[in-house]
Amino acid sequence: MSLPPAAIAAANPTRQAxxxxxxxxxxxxxxxxxxxxxxxxAINSMLFFALLVVVVFSFSFDPTGDDxxxxxxxxxxxxxxxxxxxxxxxxxxxxxxxxxLDAYRVSTAPPNDLFLAKALGNFLFVTVLxxxxxxxxxxxxxxxxxxxxxxxPVIALLGTWALVVNGTFFAAISLRTRSREVMxxxxxxxxxxxxxxxxxxxxxxxxxxxxxxxxxxxLLAVYDLVFTTxxxxxxxxxxxxx
Amino acid sequence: xxxxxxxxxxxxxTWVIHGVFLLTLVTRWRKAxxxxxxxxxx
Amino acid sequence: xxxxxxxxxxxxxxLLAFGLYQGLVVAPTEQTMGDxxxxxxxxxxxxxxxxxxxxxxxxxxxWYLFTRTSRSDAIAVTTAEVGVVFxxxxxxxxxLWARPVWGIWWTWDARLTSTLVxxxxxxxxxxxxxxxxxxxxxxLAAALAVFGFADVPFVYLSIWxxxxxxxxxxxxxxxxxxxxxxxxxxxxxxxxxxxxxLLCWFRYQLERKQRDVEETLALESMLxxxxx
Lengths: 242, 42, 228
Hints:
The complex is a heterotrimer.
Chain A: H1 5-11, H2 21-39, H3 41-60, H4 68-89, H5 93-97, H6 100-106, H7 111-140, H8 151-174, H9 180-208, H10 214-239
Chain B: H1 4-41
Chain C: H1 3-26, H2 40-67, H3 70-102, H4 110-131, H5 137-165, H6 179-224
């Protein structure tokens, strides 16, 4: 457990004051975005993966039938889920390679800043993916939105955050396991089932215009709130687990 | 279809599951015992 | 084995035998489903016992996160494992009941589906424990246990709502129970809870022994100065 900042400051009078809360978050996030922009590692693999899923699914389910609108919600979110796992698996890869996590542990930077920076980074990557993939889905599956279309970005935001916040946390947990890349989806998927059900159902309801998606949207929002809190409460413990 | 075999199957399966679990407990216990004895021999 | 343990085993076996008698003989035959309904007397108590065990796992995990004692972690892994054993009983007896009554093995009904997801969470917990390297296993597992338990209300709520939108046959049905059926149910619950307690005790002893082995191994390599 890290010492309270006041104790550190008292013990080291010459040490600089603890970095201001938003600064560490911002700096880490910008660093990740810049590195990703240069290499485009995550984005490229995610895009390719999602595209593959779309094409393979279109062989299994007739994408042009009348039912397309009903199953499209599920297909889209499965594609995004798999692509998100690709992104999540490399969340901490850079930090591990360069022993950055050890540096974080001994620094006075708040661990939650690191977590939020990583989660926001992943969130942005997956959102970019979704923005790129959605027109492809509309084209491949001949989608037309019958219900309130403005709800779709809301569902996408809430759903993506649900996957990414837990995924970033579990990626940190799976760092200390064998078969790291398999462990992440293995522990992420069961816990995400309520959120996945929410995303898929809400999307389907909005596409088909059948009923109200309000329950699912509220469920997703509460899920996001609860699990963001749990992640922030436990991240420092997991980071310092040694 | 005659439902009664399902009744017996359910009850039997329950005890098979518990029996297998107890078996794994015994196996793991014996293995731990063996390892401890090997250490004590050294 | 020591005498108190043997007595406990005898008591548990007696309770289970009595529960079996209650379930198969004493309880009246159900009107619509017939004798196959008696699976209920094994299916439901196993489910309740499973939930209690997972709850104890949650409490033990929180306790571990606050106190970092070996005992709380041992209780956590014990209750998770025994809970998964009871969960498999629920998941298998459910379809065995559904098939003759509804003609299909799995109806994706709310309760059974939620229980399936619940079990998947704890199976993933056990797999994390198995695959985790190094000494951080208890902390990581405890963190996952908190997530898992926090998820439980979401699991049940979301699947329940999903099913009210897309109704399916319900395994176990609603309706009130004849008092003799209640007795059979509660006796079996008592018996299976006692049995679960016994299983947990055995598993806990095994856990302690395995930790002894690990400590001896660690001590050996420390003293010898070479890894084994």
